[in-house]
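R.M. (postdoc): so does anyone remember the format we settled on? I'll just put the structure tokens first.
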């Protein structure tokens, strides 16, 4: 499906992470897809980072140290301990970051403060440099971590923006929460016009498709679970699990479940019917949507790469896991 799928778009602060998060390049050594992440230990470099937490939760902390900092491996010191379950390498994590060039001492920007969206960091996403994922690995919600990240765990020989090839990166992570991996709202009956949906133990939906396609005049939306979290607003960036089925062919054409990772994107970055299914719903809800061609891929002539014709009716089952204002950055 042609989603706009930003991965931590706010991390583009001061030009940092733009190339990596756009998928144009990846770190030479800082993206260990062939090795499990490990929890980093504190070291002299991370212990040298001083963090003054602001009085208000929406204000970035003040980060100071004597530059340059040097390290050959990612180090992480706990500034404030969190509570609850430890973050694992399979979680999606809501986190704020403050970035400083560890070699020059120059501030590079902050994300998730001053009213901007708190981003969801997918721990399994290897487009995000390993050092940033290591920074929050094994931490608990509420924790503040000072990490010092060498180029090999960051951006390798290419650097990024004002972070040069040999520069060390200081990242102070303010861990907000762990995003759930499936909707946890109260089960409700969507109505007789919707096909039956059953759930696997993992939460993945299975849809019992009627043989006869019934194309609605406009997108039909039914609730399978009623959540009680934040309400999705138009233009928000949402985090969801979803399964998309072409009713005409009976085939699943896209599903986050098969990738083992939820997806985050703005409601403006999807087909009209999908956006309608999201806006106005609450986090924790699971919805089913029947989308006619006019609000699906009809206007674009179909989606041949996914086997979707311009005349096909689509069905989506979507777990709404998180929502927030689409990110801006602070430098």
């Amino acid at each position: 499906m042609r989603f706009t799928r930003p991965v931590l778009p706010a991390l583009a602060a001061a030009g940092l992470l733009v190339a990596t998060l756009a998928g144009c390049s990846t770190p030479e050594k800082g993206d260990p897809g062939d090795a499990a992440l490990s929890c980093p230990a504190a070291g002299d470099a991370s212990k040298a980072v001083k963090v003054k937490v602001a009085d208000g939760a929406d204000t970035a902390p003040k980060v100071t140290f004597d530059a340059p900092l040097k390290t050959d491996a990612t180090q992480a010191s706990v500034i404030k301990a969190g509570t609850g379950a430890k973050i694992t390498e399979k979680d999606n994590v809501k986190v704020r970051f403050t970035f400083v060039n560890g070699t020059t001492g120059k501030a590079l920007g902050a994300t998730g403060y001053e009213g901007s969206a708190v981003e969801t960091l997918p721990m399994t996403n290897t487009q995000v440099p390993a050092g940033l994922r290591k920074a929050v690995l094994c931490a608990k919600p509420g924790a503040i971590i000072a990490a010092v990240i060498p180029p090999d765990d960051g951006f390798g020989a290419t650097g990024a923006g004002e972070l040069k090839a040999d520069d060390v990166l200081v990242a102070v992570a303010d861990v907000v929460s762990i995003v759930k991996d499936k909707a946890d709202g109260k089960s409700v009956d969507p109505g007789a016009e919707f096909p039956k949906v059953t759930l696997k133990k993992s939460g993945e939906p299975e849809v019992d498709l009627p043989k006869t396609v019934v194309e609605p005049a406009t997108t039909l939306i039914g609730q399978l679970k009623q959540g009680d979290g934040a309400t999705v607003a138009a233009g928000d960036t949402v985090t969801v699990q979803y399964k998309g089925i072409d009713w005409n062919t009976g085939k699943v054409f896209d599903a986050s479940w098969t990738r083992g990772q939820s997806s985050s994107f703005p409601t403006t970055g999807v087909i009209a019917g999908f956006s309608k299914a999201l806006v106005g719903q609450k986090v924790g809800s699971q919805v089913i949507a029947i989308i006619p061609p006019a609000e699906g891929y009809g206007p674009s002539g179909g989606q041949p790469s996914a086997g979707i014709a311009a005349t096909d009716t689509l069905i989506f089952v979507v777990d709404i896991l998180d929502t927030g204002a689409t990110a801006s950055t602070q430098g």
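R.M.: ...and that's the designed sequence above, right after the tokens. Also worth knowing: Residues 2-35 have pLDDT under 50 and may be disordered. The radius of gyration is 21 Å.
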